[in-house]
Amino acid sequence: MRLWSSWISGRNRFWKSILVNTTLVVLVIWGVGQWHARNLLPESDAEVVPDFELQSLVGSSHRLYASDGSVFLYFFAPWCTVCRFSISNLNDLPSSSTKNDAKVYAVALDWNNVGEVEGFAKNQELEVPVLLGNRGTAKDFRIQAFPTYYVLDGAKKVARRNVGYSTSLGMRWNFAWVRAGGFGFQFLSFLFE
């Protein structure tokens, strides 16, 4: 009986240790993300983001305020290793929808030449428009680290933002939340489209 009770208490300590350690890791990752995001444009109902008109890799011009509905802006640098791991998750986001217009853009910053951006986009097999940003774009959106993304609502106000690696589910969750205006049936519809 003593052997059984010591085995049970040892097992409980093991699971408690796993729970505490997992909680600490999650809190540290969250804290680092919050620290990195401290200088970004604020999530606000009052402040709209600056407009831009940028050329894509295929030569078409894209103006931010010309798009109706929600917009997902993913800022990256072609040399960024973390960007290489997470940018392909953009392909899982709906770039347009009959239910609610939605746009997804990858915006290249801190690049030396167009060929460098083209090579990066080709290697990552991006299916979303890749726009060629500049120092003014980086300054307007307060980009200090890569990758950084913003999810804008239909009024072009920041509804969600993140710095660093994001999973496909995390990106999809934030985009669906903004497009649906919160949790509900429409959120679930957008999440699984």
Q: Mean pLDDT, rounded to whole units?
A: 85
Envelope shape: globular
| Helical stretch tally | 6
Class by SSE composition: alpha/beta
Structural domain tally: 2
The side-by-side strand order for the widest beta sheet comes to 5-4-3-6-7
CATH H-level homologous superfamily name of the largest domain: Glutaredoxin
Strand content: 15-25%
In CATH terms, what is the fold-level topology of the largest domain? Glutaredoxin
Description:
By secondary structure, the chain is an alpha/beta fold. It folds into 2 domains: 1-39; 71-191, Glutaredoxin. The protein has 6 helices and 7 strands; from the N terminus they run αβββαβαβαββαα. Strand 3, helix 2 (81-86) and strand 4 (102-108) form a beta-alpha-beta unit. The mean pLDDT is 85.
Structural descriptors:
6 helices, two-stranded antiparallel ribbon, 193 residues, alpha/beta, single chain, 5-stranded mixed beta sheet, Glutaredoxin, 2 domains
